[in-house]
Design a protein that fits this description.
The chain is α+β, with helices and mostly antiparallel strands. The protein has a single domain, classed as Alpha-Beta Plaits, CATH 3.30.70.260. A hairpin with a 2-residue loop joins strand 2 and strand 3. 20% of the residues are buried. InterPro entries: ACT-like_dom_sf (IPR045865), ACT_dom (IPR002912). Pfam families: ACT. It comes from Ruminococcus callidus ATCC 27760. This is ACT domain protein.
Length: 119
C-alpha cells in the first residue's frame, strides 16, 4: 500500500508498506528508496546527501542524548547521491535533537516517530 504521510510540522513522506499478519507491517519504501523496517520502535529517518560524516553526526548526537540504537539501516540511490538512514531506537527520540540535526549541512529532511506516543 502506498500512502503520503504528513508530519505535525508539515514534512511529507511517500511510504510503501505491506502487511505481514497479526496487525504488523513492514515499511518497504520511503520517498523512492527501498527500505525494510517495522515501525514498532521509536524511529528517526534521516534523508541526506551520500557524503562522509552524516552517520557519525547522527549516532554521536543519539549517544549524547542517551538514546540506544536497536537497529540501523543505510540506503542510497547512487554513490554520492541521495541517501536515507533509518535508526530504530529503544528510547524516545528528543524533538530538540531532531531540530538540531535538521540544521546540519547535507541533511535534507528528518522524520521522527515515537512509537509509545502513537499507541
Amino acid at each position: 500500500m502506498k500512502i503520503e504521510v504528513v508530519g505535525e510540522h508539515g514534512s511529507q513522506l511517500e511510504v510503501i508498506g505491506s502487511s505481514v499478519g497479526g496487525g504488523r507491517i513492514r515499511i518497504c519504501e520511503i520517498d523512492g528508496i527501498r527500505t525494510d523496517f517495522s515501525g514498532e520502535y521509536n524511529t528517526i529517518i534521516v534523508h541526506n546527501t551520500d557524503t562522509p560524516g552524516h552517520v557519525a553526526q547522527v549516532t554521536t548526537v543519539l549517544a549524547q542524548k542517551n538514546v540506544n540504537i536497536a537497529a540501523m539501516q543505510l540506503y542510497r540511490n547512487t554513490k554520492g547521491g541521495y541517501a536515507v538512514m533509518i535508526l530504530e531506537c529503544d528510547d524516545r527520540i528528543p524533538p530538540d535533537m531532531v531540530r538540531w540535526l535538521s540544521g546540519l549541512d547535507g541533511i535534507l529532511k528528518i522524520t521522527s516517530y515515537n512509537a509509545e506516543e502513537n499507541v
